Amino acid sequence: MSAKRIAKSGIDWAKFAKLVPESDRAMFTAFKGKSDVYLRKVMSFPENAPAINWSEYRTKIVNKAVVDELEKAYKAVSVPYPEDKWTSSVDEQEKNNENSVAEYCEWSRSKVKEAEEMLQKFKLMIPYDRMTDEEFAQTFPDWSMTKEKNSLYPHYEFTPGMSKEEREEAKRKPDYP
C-alpha cells in the first residue's frame, strides 16, 4: 500500500533538476539524497501488517482468553493514512501566483531583449576611448550631457564651502586641553 501512495505523489526529479539554478545544485543534490533515503525506508516496510499464527500461541499459552484478547486487539488496530491538508492550499497559492509569474517572465524577456539590443549597439559602435563628445551624444542620447542635464556621472550637486554639520563640528571646542 505504501508503494501505491508514493507512486501517486511521485516527483519528476529530472524536471525538478532543470529548474534548479547552478548555485543551488549542491543543496538540491542533498535534498534528493535525503528524499531517496526516506523513500527506501518506506519501501522497506511491508504493505500490510505481518500475519500472526494465533493457533500456535493458543497451543503454547495456558490462558486462551489472553490470546483471544490479543488477537482481537491486533485485528482492531487500524492506522489511517494521514489526511492531506496542504495540497489544496499549495494549488490555490499556485493559481494566485500564476499571473505575477507570467508578468515577471514577460518583464524578464523584455529586459533580455533590451540587453541584447544594447550589446548589439556596443558591437557596432566606435570604441569608447576613440569617441568624441558628439559621437557619444549620438550613440547614447540618454547618457550624454544636455542643457537640462548639465553634468556627467556621478551627478553630484556640490555647493562650495562647509556643510551645516561640518560648520557645527568646527565650532565645538576640541577635546584636548
Automatic annotation (TrEMBL):
Residues 163-177 have a biased composition (Basic and acidic residues). It is found in: Mitochondrion inner membrane. Gene3D superfamilies: 6.10.280.70. Its main location: mitochondrion. PANTHER family: ATP SYNTHASE SUBUNIT D, MITOCHONDRIAL. Belongs to the ATPase d subunit family. This is ATP synthase subunit d, mitochondrial.
